[in-house]
Amino acid sequence: MVHTGERKLRRRAVPAVDGRGAWPHWGGYRLMPDAWESRQGRKSRLDDRLRYRRDAGQWVRERLAP
Question: Does 54 score more than 90 pLDDT?
Fold first, then answer.
């Protein structure tokens, strides 16, 4: 079910600024990680622990646990 406010946002085009698709008044930081880790919960409580890292311009997935 899509709410009316969401429909309005979907129709609204985001102007491109420097090719990034952001408004000039937006602030913040652009993060460009070399690696990041995540956990995916399982019913058995043995979470999948994954690391994604950059290697020669490609993302490589490594399973750390279990």
Answer: yes
